[in-house]
């Protein structure tokens, strides 16, 4: 094999099923950005799907598509597929995908007893009056007539979807939603005909088949965790062959989890189903799509070699819509990686976004809104750019500048790139930030951008630069707690916990009350280092209150059984040689707690170098050195600063 040749990737091969030919084996599985108004997709929605399909995915499955009024939310950001009035908007979505050469499939869902934590106008329903652990009350058990109404709702929604231009539909029978509730031993306790766990799904398939003919119908199922979940892998390998024999369908899409666990956070570093592909393959004879947690070519190829026909991902396409095109071209290194942070993609404020992809903006904005801080008026002519800071903001700015052809140099006083993202990645279960830092650093190296670490340029060294971008980040302030106990900031502790904890096995963590990752990572780091006991003290009302529901649920699952205590509505007033003094923030009562070390979560404060720019220099600030916020702000402001500089350089004299 010559140096220019490479082994063909299985993921690049076309695949045919249900009369459709996919250009490759990569599937953008169902997700949505909530760019929907009054139940109808907006122009921003169509733009999102067009850009994703343009990136080369073989099949694109759109999610967030409900089949009945009782399965919608008051904000109406789920597509209301049963409404003929929404068909034109849905057609624009379908055309956006098909015009770019991808197969378009609409996933249809009925939430059943799962209300997504939102108040609804309707009673939640299910196979039986079995309460979801994610809901406060048991649902209304559907009567046989009402079940037949659900069948009709799926039929109508499927007909509307294919009439709007979709090549087929996928039935969402996973993640604990209504069809899964009928499949599950734990939730389907009926004694009528629908007590046969496949009965409802089989009727839905048959009704849709009568409506749309031979167009493909897929079924998505999920392996639910726990021996008594009622829908484990053994259940699916028994149910799927029966279902396929009773009511044939085109493909099966297998994933894992239920609400709040089916979108895995950073702690999940390998695809959960990768080791189960062979077992699934032996159980089902129809095309097999496996999903969840796939990020790398190696894992995708591993799934295909084990028997999968297709591999599905959602968040990696949000982070980089060109994922498919890049990996098929053998350029995996240039893929902007999904970190698994579950921040922008799971907040819907007002639409879903991505923390590391600044090109995803809310409706009405071409990109994520970001305004770098202009510290000096534009000086003389534009020219070489100095970026001070090699964190996410600074490196994003340098990347965009280099790609525009600008001459740029990055400086950082630290000896490692990454800033706060690198620091966050030192904690257990937070490796996604290291992936992103490595991506930025490697891309800068490929572009030949000098990154001078451990370097603090003075005015003389900066004289040669016409443009200066400050991306110097922030630092954590100390919390003034008087007393004798050894006290470290959470930043210091993250850098040293492996050395600190063996000599200080009882760790107290004073959170700032906002329940964000600094205090959580301090607690998880202490536990990973073998702490005998960790106590989180917070003036807030609870633990990890700032996290998204997915991240919080998965965190609590990780911590089950750990020697961790939480003392809420309390603060530390002082320390002694062997512990801390606590005061309840409401009644003022004081108590003592034994501890060997105190870790404090302090305010993050902007850090800017103190220098006076020359008359010919323009200075901008981005990211945490403007105001400490999230990585999404840093990345977006870094990109925006680069675009402002490139636009200035392009102006005629």
TrEMBL record:
<keyword id="KW-0288">FMN</keyword>
<keyword id="KW-0285">Flavoprotein</keyword>
<dbReference type="InterPro" id="IPR001155">
    <property type="entry name" value="OxRdtase_FMN_N"/>
</dbReference>
<dbReference type="InterPro" id="IPR051793">
    <property type="entry name" value="NADH:flavin_oxidoreductase"/>
</dbReference>
<keyword id="KW-0408">Iron</keyword>
<dbReference type="InterPro" id="IPR013785">
    <property type="entry name" value="Aldolase_TIM"/>
</dbReference>
<keyword id="KW-0479">Metal-binding</keyword>
<keyword id="KW-0560">Oxidoreductase</keyword>
<dbReference type="Pfam" id="PF00724">
    <property type="entry name" value="Oxidored_FMN"/>
</dbReference>
<feature type="domain" description="NADH:flavin oxidoreductase/NADH oxidase N-terminal">
    <location>
        <begin position="12"/>
        <end position="329"/>
    </location>
</feature>
<feature type="domain" description="FAD/NAD(P)-binding">
    <location>
        <begin position="385"/>
        <end position="604"/>
    </location>
</feature>
<protein>
    <submittedName>
        <fullName>FAD-dependent oxidoreductase</fullName>
    </submittedName>
</protein>
<comment type="similarity">
    <text>In the N-terminal section; belongs to the NADH:flavin oxidoreductase/NADH oxidase family.</text>
</comment>
<dbReference type="InterPro" id="IPR036188">
    <property type="entry name" value="FAD/NAD-bd_sf"/>
</dbReference>
<keyword id="KW-0411">Iron-sulfur</keyword>
<dbReference type="Pfam" id="PF07992">
    <property type="entry name" value="Pyr_redox_2"/>
</dbReference>
<dbReference type="InterPro" id="IPR023753">
    <property type="entry name" value="FAD/NAD-binding_dom"/>
</dbReference>
